[in-house]
Design brief:
This protein is α+β, with helices and mostly antiparallel strands. The protein has helices at residues 12-15, 57-67, 70-78, 85-101, 103-117, 129-147, 179-183, 233-246, 259-269, 347-351; strands at residues 6-8, 26-31, 36-42, 48-50, 155-161, 169-170, 175-177, 200-206, 209-214, 219-220, 227-230, 250-253, 278-289, 292-297, 309-315, 328-329, 334-337, 361-364.
């Protein structure tokens, strides 16, 4: 059994730089549902649940192994320490782990599971949302050891905030987005994941630092030794917007005096949040011939018990109003495709076996 019953899906070591006075005890939050700032919320009550990862002590120990170096690395970066290979690997492992394990990520996965059960006439047992969420995040954690190297090819840079607008964090702080897929849909596909070309991960580290992982074959940032100095408030707001668009309910910020600034940012970016996290389409078998099966899309209310149904679930990704000015498309950007619905991927993912298939070739983007 796990030693710690109250398990944090956003660890306190991540929240600490955003706590009041950096002391790790209380934190200011902004709730998006109520559009209200709340001062001095106890950190111990934030982003946690009883046995959120289950009662597997080995899994809990593995998570602690990733978390433990994170705090010292953040203090090192706060002192403008060099970003060497050890810092890179700690940040990459932590960012990907955090992306997989939050409550919001688990609910996204569980909503997909529930959609597959919610078919008229289905005799599959339907789990509760909470049960499905826990199962989803535990499965993701168990899969982490096999997939954690999927981000190793991405370029790391740390943005130093030189403005008066602080970075904020949230209850789902490790964001995956993809400018290529959002802005150039003819070259890519509207849906994407960690293995697709153009992947971008964003994780705020402190109110003054934010980490980016990005596909260096698609974008350039002009970083110097992995550092970027951002002196435009618009760039900070563009990064904060991803926290607002993607979080489950709460934003976190250190200084209470910044509450009106956070509220203004939330008011601007909240309308960009997708109405639903997934779009579910159900299609019913209409006819079969020598060429195959033909399905027609139907509303769930029009599907009769006993009909053969295909369920298609697509994640709805937020579309930001702006991107950081320093993250630009490469004029000679490239990806790999085999001209199928698998979409674009990166050479690393092919070489390491994260993507399988025949006929992949380099394409210009």
């Amino acid at each position: 059994m796990a030693d710690n019953k109250n398990q944090h899906f956003v660890p306190r070591v991540h929240l600490r730089p955003f706590t009041v006075g950096g002391e790790g005890l209380a934190i200011n939050l902004f709730n998006l549902d109520r559009m209200k700032a709340i001062p001095n919320a106890p950190v111990r009550n934030q982003c946690s649940g009883d046995y959120f990862y289950g009662q597997n002590r080995l899994l809990e120990n593995a998570i602690n192994f990733i978390e433990n170096p994170y705090g010292p690395v953040i203090r090192h970066l706060a002192d403008n320490g060099a970003i060497g290979s050890a810092v890179e690997i700690v940040l990459k492992r932590f960012i990907y782990l955090q992306y997989l394990r939050t409550e919001a990520a688990s609910f996204k996965a569980s909503e997909m599971v529930l959609a597959l059960h919610d078919v008229p006439g289905s005799d599959l047992p339907v789990p509760t949302v909470k049960e499905a969420a826990k199962e989803a995040v535990q499965a993701a954690m168990l899969n982490y050891k096999d997939t954690m190297r999927i981000v190793d090819d991405l370029t790391l840079c740390v943005v130093r905030n030189r403005t008066g607008s602080p970075f904020v964090t949230s209850d789902d702080p490790a964001v995956l987005t993809n400018r290529l897929h959002i802005q150039r849909p003819r070259k890519a596909r509207p849906s994407f994941g960690a293995k697709t070309a153009g992947a971008i991960f964003i994780l705020p580290l402190t109110p003054m630092l934010c980490a980016l992982l990005y596909d260096g074959a698609v974008y350039s940032s002009g970083h110097r030794a992995h550092w970027i100095d951002a002196d435009r408030s618009a760039d900070i707001l563009a990064l904060n917007s991803h926290q607002i668009m993607g979080c489950w309910a709460n934003l976190y910020f250190r200084d209470w005096d910044d509450r009106e600034l956070v509220a203004a940012q939330a008011g601007t970016s909240k309308p960009l949040r997708p109405e639903t996290r997934q779009t579910v389409t159900q299609a019913v078998l209409e006819k079969t011939n020598d060429w195959g099966e033909y399905y027609a899309v139907k509303k769930p209310t029009n599907i009769r018990n006993g009909e053969k149904v295909l369920v298609h679930v697509v994640s709805n990704h937020p579309v930001p109003a702006a991107w950081p000015s320093f993250l630009r498309f490469r004029p000679n950007g490239r990806a790999y495709s085999n001209n199928t619905g698998a979409g674009l991927t990166r050479s690393w993912c092919l070489e390491q076996g994260f993507v399988r298939g025949e006929g992949y070739h380099k394409v210009s983007i």
